[in-house]
Amino acid sequence: MSVLYVVATPIGNLGDITLRALETLKNADIIAAEDTRQTQKLLNHFDIRTKLVSYHKFNEKSRGEELIDSMLEKELSVALVSDAGTPAVSDPGAVLVRLAIQKNIPVYALPGASAAVAALSMSGFTNTEFAFYGFPPRKKNEIVRFLKSVPNRAHTAIFYESPHRIKSLLQLMQDVYHGFECAVFSDITKLFEKSFHGTITEVYNAILEDEKAEKGEYTVLVNIEEVKAQEDSSELKSLEALLVDEMINNNLNSKEAINSLALKNYNKNALYNAALNLKKMIS
Fold first, then answer.
1. Alpha-carbon gap, residue 132 to 117, rounded angstroms
2. Model confidence over 161-174: pLDDT tens digits?
3. Residue 165: is it exposed, middle or buried by C-beta count within 10 angstroms (0-12/13-18/19+)?
4. Is the pLDDT of residue 231 over 60?
5. How far is it, in rounded angstroms, from Cα 84 to Cα 143?
6. What phi and psi, each to the nearest 5 degrees, are found at residue 38?
7. Cα gap 183→219, rounded to integer Å
8. What pLDDT is recorded for position 241?
């Protein structure tokens, strides 16, 4: 019987493979892999000898059509895998799945590792809503437009980024999402897994000081707060006065005053804007 299995594989620690995934990889007629060399390491570790064929972003359509034709003609079962994690989530796979659906070939998912979900579980963010935005564009102006397109509602925004562009992404995020809380993870489940928590500026500064920052893959989470447009300047002025009182009465700097007032249910981003306005007035 023709069938397509979408198989999640470990994102680092090989112990995270599921028993069902191992059984499927062993018994499938063909494994369609994003990088056959990378997948071969996994198969060798578990002594799996199933035939491998390459299936990556540069041959998604042509190889996908070939696989579908073979599946229909010979009633083959195909296991689809990416280099790590869940296929078709910022990895090749969606085209093959769509082709299978169009030809009425059953598609089954074998759930497993996903960096986005793993990072979300470790973020400590309490938003019940989250959205995955994948990899940002590469050009600065396109990145800014991309970040600004994220909906202005309370939710956790999840991004992937490469080690060579993580610093520039966080630098741009400081302007677009100023004052928002951030959690960044690299090499999840691997030996040198790292995590960073704080405001985007705090996380950016921590990564700047990390000598090994340009290694490993990054998952970036931003705790988006809904920012409502202010009807006039009166609200901003009142927040400025509130900040000044908090700093003077409790001997706090602006950052400490913002955090203190945020604990009293004042909007942190609005407080940040008020602090920026005060800084401009002073300078």
1. 9
2. 999 999 999 999 99
3. middle
4. no
5. 25
6. -70, -45
7. 8
8. 87
